[in-house]
Amino acid sequence: MKKVEISVIIPAFNEEQNIKAGVLEKVYRYLKRQEYIWEVLIVDDESKDETAELAKVFAKSHRGFKVLKEPHRGKGGTVIAGMLAAAGEIILFTDMDQATPLDQLEKFFPKFDEGYEGVIGSRSGRKGAPILRKLMAFGFAVLRTIVLRLPYKDTQCGFKAFRVGAAKKIFSKMKVFREERQIKGASVTAGFDLEMLYIARKLGYKVAEVPVAWSHQETKRVNPLKDSWEGLRDLLKVRINAFQGKYKT
């Protein structure tokens, strides 16, 4: 059996509407045209609607698609589960709504060829996003620069890929969003990307940032006050963990 070259992780919580709108079919149509061997892991975050059932039906009729059912932990814990379960040499996680289309992965390959262990997407200006979302992003960018010294323009884009060796080490070391974490309701877990990128830097991995296409997709999961508070809380948790030496190799 040939080795999987690209794994695509798609976290899913109450994504019935997007699945019915055909996003998985778009992902499949793109991937089936590629020459590399691929797999898609749809990781269900204990959805309350028909997400898991619809995903299973789709996977049965589309080779290369698999569904993982996980306890509800928010996007962070769901992505961790998918990244650790993936078999590909390069592992990408992307949002179900495909705000960044899957074909943007092609922009990542040159960076991997140059020797980078990770490549992250960067959205320029967040065109189409409400002003409140832009203000939240700006404030969070200032805080992450001050507290964690991360050198990236956009840490929150939900389109990131790592070589398998780096992925397994990074995601197995995550503390704030460890697999056992349980939550209630929808959660965008803003600090998840910060902890991941901070660990990558602590481990010495080279991570490139590449501009990608992005279109704003309206979602009910964003709660400005709740998400801002959780983002600040998780940011401080990462800093405290670092002071305590929890991310050392």
UniProtKB/TrEMBL annotation:
<dbReference type="GO" id="GO:0006487">
    <property type="term" value="P:protein N-linked glycosylation"/>
</dbReference>
<dbReference type="GO" id="GO:0016740">
    <property type="term" value="F:transferase activity"/>
</dbReference>
<dbReference type="Pfam" id="PF00535">
    <property type="entry name" value="Glycos_transf_2"/>
</dbReference>
<protein>
    <submittedName>
        <fullName>Glycosyl transferase family 2</fullName>
    </submittedName>
</protein>
<feature type="domain" description="Glycosyltransferase 2-like">
    <location>
        <begin position="7"/>
        <end position="171"/>
    </location>
</feature>
<keyword id="KW-0808">Transferase</keyword>
<dbReference type="InterPro" id="IPR029044">
    <property type="entry name" value="Nucleotide-diphossugar_trans"/>
</dbReference>
<dbReference type="InterPro" id="IPR001173">
    <property type="entry name" value="Glyco_trans_2-like"/>
</dbReference>
